[in-house]
Fold:
Amino acid sequence: MKRKFYLLAGLFGIATVFIFTACRCYRPAKHNATSNAANASADAVLAAGSWAASPADVPDPAVTALLHKIDEATAAAQTLTADFCYAVTSVKQQQFITGKVQLMKPNFMRINYDYMAHPAFPNPVAADGDKIYTFTPQSFMPNRTFHDEPFDSVLGARQASGLLPGGGKFSSSPVTADGSNLHLWDSIALQAFFKPAAALRYLYYSRLGELKSEGQKEINGVTYDVIAHHYVNGNIAGGENSSFEQHVYVAPGGLIAMYVLEFTSQGRPGVQIMQLSNLHINVPLTKADFTFTPPSEAAHSK
Structure:
């Protein structure tokens, strides 16, 4: 069933509606699931195949069909260019980030950040088929918090993109052959281009039957197929427990284009949204488009 869908001010507040409308996105305090069983089950799913179901599992037929559509669309896309918006609003944290991304299989990525409201968690910048380069802002501390210091949202975004020196340091690590370790925090949409099943591990489901279809929803003129999941053992930044209401939005072409996470912090609702927009697939790109050298004045450790 197709229906118009809007985020209402009464649910999350006017600020969230404004951000969703202006940039189609929003992000929460970084969360980590506490269920080892869920992660182990997800590993088993990956080992058995993209979307294997156990004999006792009864998946939603609409979800099964949609997962196969995602697999087919992802397999057909060799390159992807898109704008993105990643944001979060909660009683503890406000963040708003925009940028552009280029992806190429099997394991190439380039991200340029246009705007960061605040310093971000360590962010990927590039993957050249051999290494992933990550930027860590100088205000980021070992306990995953930030110390206060002046921050320019445009300058900081360019530094986090490796376009200007300063603001933090770069590090590098190996990229997997299939690109499965390429992701932008826990946003699902970017990682799904390389490995949909790996990206959907962030839903923390233990059985495919937990995933439910919510039919089609129209947002800003685009009709998405929606997969929903309710997770009861979530944990957000600072160790606070919260149930998660998670929604994955599949674009008309079959690629995952948006992830929305609703949670509770200090008894008040929070929401995270990551959205890819202006998607273009199979745009001609070469390895040279992903060559990256950190600015000479930034600290680069191998």
Q: What stands out?
A: The helical segments are 9-12, 14-23, 36-48, 61-76, 153-160, 189-192, 196-199. The chain has one domain: 2-292.
